[in-house]
Design a protein that fits this description.
2 copies of one chain form a homodimer.
Chain A (H helix, E strand, L loop, with lengths): L11 H16 L6 H8 L3 H7 L3 H26 L3 H18 L1 H9 L16 H15 L8 H20 L11 H12 L3
The structure holds a DNA duplex (30 and 30 nucleotides).
Chain lengths: 196, 196
DNA sequence: CACTTTAGAACGAACGCTCGTTCTAGTCAA
DNA sequence: TTGACTAGAACGAGCGTTCGTTCTAAAGTG
């Protein structure tokens, strides 16, 4: 039973979105009914349809909120670190952090098959945050930190290992806490693309 | 409209499974109705329920068929190649091949969120084929080809880049054919984990 | 051979239920 | 009083599944 997000300071709209995140990641979009959302959020059917066009509208709002939040964090990282090396390292650290402290957020971003219920959204990996990550890699190449290569391929190799570890963690098949693998994964990933 | 698998030599059971693969990857499990499967496979509702317990039973049979097929191919690779290096290289080549020639197969294996409609199946990455891939990595460490590391982390880094490229291809965001990235991805991936 | 019996494959209309959504009535703040 | 918000009963479409029936072909029998 979901209780964590029924904070009285939250607006009905926020309550619905937080509940949707909880339910969608736990049971999946199609196994979650509007009645489930009504019950767990303590917001009535009528109110939900006052704030959102339909069920898909709830999912879209949730998706956009998470993308925007992620983009904000990436922007901060870009300001804080100068080298592409440090930027990319910080990104993986961020992703690991979120996976541990808010697994639902990570699961919804990486793991949920959005196209099945959001036919109008572009796939996650062509969203702004993923583009930003590729831009970091491209900048690393321009600065001579990363070997000249196809940006798409280099990005896949640099972040692919970490993302794989994250989905393993979300599947619950890791023995140790995710952060215990951080240095190991980072050193592998960087070695994969580093110049010379 | 789906016509490719209505081969008259196929048994009704095979027709249903082939149609399910086609529809599930194209529209998703929950957006595919039993009527859709009936129509596209030209097998009647009654017959489908004669061969399969229920809709989930169709999905389970499909999933098991694909896992078994993948395992057979991995076994062949293990016999053909001696070094872990050659084995892993061949695995990535195989995955790229399947992605290009039978994208549905790859999409269903890697991309579809099985747990949403197969609550009794373990996640893909703890299935036998994925275990076999980790065993290859472990063997590479024992032989001194791959640096001593946590096997889980090394496997993620070695195959993560390729898998990321495959999902990019399935999302249709690659400019060139997937195979054009093969050597680049492999050299990055191997560098990530190779001994010294 | 011819006829009957039988097992189970194939069929698809019909059922019951759950879902997303709508609608009307009511509440509350300004 | 008005307009934004809340409430939850009611609706109709569409779903997975069932079930009574028909079809097919092999086995049994004389």
């Amino acid at each position: 039973m979901f209780t964590g997000y029924q904070d009285s300071v939250m607006s009905p709209r926020e309550k619905v979105i937080a509940t949707a995140l909880w339910l969608f990641t736990r049971k999946g979009y199609f196994n979650t009914s509007m009645r489930d959302i009504t019950r767990e959020s303590a917001v009535s059917t009528g109110s939900i349809y006052h704030y959102f066009k339909d069920k898909e509208g709830v999912a879209t709002a949730l998706f956009e909120a998470l993308l925007e939040r992620m983009q904000t964090e990436l922007d901060t990282i870009m300001q804080l670190h100068e080298s592409a090396h440090d930027q990319c390292r910080a990104v993986i650290s961020l992703l690991f952090d979120i996976t541990q402290s808010e697994p639902d957020v990570m699961a919804f971003m990486l793991y949920v098959k959005h196209r099945e219920f959001l036919p109008n959204e572009r796939p996650v990996c062509s969203s702004k945050p993923f583009e930003t990550m590729r831009a970091m890699v491209a900048r690393g190449m321009a600065r001579g930190e990363i070997e000249q290569r196809d940006v798409q391929a280099a990005s896949a190799c640099l972040f692919g290992g970490a993302i794989r570890m994250i989905t393993s963690e979300l599947d619950g098949i890791l023995e140790k806490p995710l952060h215990d693998y951080y240095e190991e994964v980072w050193s592998c990933s960087w070695r994969a693309v580093a110049a010379i």
